[in-house]
Design a protein that fits this description.
Blueprint: H1 2-12, E1 18-24, H2 26-29, E2 44-45, H3 57-68, E3 73-79, H4 85-91, H5 93-96, E4 102-105, H6 120-136, E5 141-146, H7 167-184, E6 188-191, H8 192-201, H9 230-245, H10 257-262, H11 266-282
Parallel strand pairs: 1-3, 1-4, 2-3, 4-5, 5-6
Helix pairs in contact: 3-9, 4-6, 6-7, 7-8, 8-9, 8-11, 9-11
Length: about 290
């Protein structure tokens, strides 16, 4: 009888939510957009409040999408503006060193703030971070989040990608993350920058915000032509959702709540979900 009761209790026990940690900078916390403080009460900001506020950002977008899909994740984030993974490993080790189930992380937007386009620092620091997480949980699922082309690093004179197509920075960043993923043996790369390229190539998004936004096109950048707009962060969250959960972004539907909260039209929502779907379908295991 006791065995039967014990078995029944085990069957009835709730399944604990998977823990997922986001590590990054302003490209994770949603700087200069409505994403920044979005539903911050639904996620845990490990750095605590700044000026009385905690961060929502892409992690809160992900949390909302997962909930809509019937999935339960315990979402945490550790973000510091303008920093790469080397900073997080050196300065935030005590906060991060826990047995997480899943980690999504990225470095500085140009790969190296002092040597734009050079992936060496990213490769080394991504491995350090991955080794730390796997020491705590050998089964930890680690994803590297390859970020987007910056218009402010491409169109103005004297910038590292000046004179090259806007897509080139995203391609270079993706290649750096692919190398880092191989060295660290992570689960894979979230191909955000390549999805941005796809959105521009297919005419959904504007490719040069400096000459105005064409009618009917989405501006993935915010006013500084550097950070993402709510549209850009939404596309980032869709890619994370797809890679981490294995769900099709299109399954969220045109009435998806984050997009509705951000004020997107249904055609815009569908278009961004389609881009995410198509990029995931085109991606190999390392996200290229």
């Amino acid at each position: 009888m006791k065995k039967i009761i014990l078995a029944a209790l085990l069957l009835a026990a709730p399944v604990e939510a998977k823990t997922i940690l986001f590590v990054g900078n302003s490209f994770t916390y949603g700087a200069n957009s409505a994403a920044h403080y979005y539903k911050s009460d639904t996620v845990s900001d490990l750095n605590g409040p700044l000026n009385g506020k905690t961060v929502g950002g892409v992690p809160a977008f992900f949390k909302a999408m997962a909930k809509e899909a019937g999935l339960d994740y315990d979402v945490s984030l550790e973000t510091v503006g303008g920093k790469g993974l080397d900073y997080h490993f050196a300065e935030k080790h005590a906060v991060l060193d826990r047995p997480w189930d899943i980690v999504v992380m990225h470095g500085y937007s140009t790969l190296d703030i002092d040597r734009p386009g050079d992936p060496a620092l990213l490769i080394a620091s991504a491995k350090q971070m991955t080794d730390m997480f796997r020491a705590r949980n050998p089964k930890a699922e680690i994803w590297l989040d390859a970020t987007w082309s910056r218009a402010d690093q491409t169109y103005p004179d004297g910038k590292p990608w000046h004179g090259k197509p806007i897509q080139q920075m995203g391609i270079d960043v993706a290649a750096g993350y692919a190398a880092a993923a191989k060295a660290a043996r992570v689960a894979g790369v979230v191909p955000v920058g390549l999805a941005w390229n796809r959105a521009m190539d297919t005419g959904i998004a504007e490719d040069n915000p400096y000459d105005g936004i064409a009618a009917g096109k989405i501006d993935l950048w915010t006013w500084d032509q550097y950070h993402a707009s709510a549209y850009g962060y939404y596309l980032e969250a869709l890619l994370v959702f797809a890679k981490v959960t294995g769900k099709d972004p299109l399954s969220l539907g045109d009435a998806e709540t984050v997009a509705d909260d951000m004020g997107f039209s249904k055609p815009q929502t569908h278009a961004l979900q389609q881009v995410a779907h198509d990029q995931v379908a085109a991606s190999n295991p390392l996200g290229q």
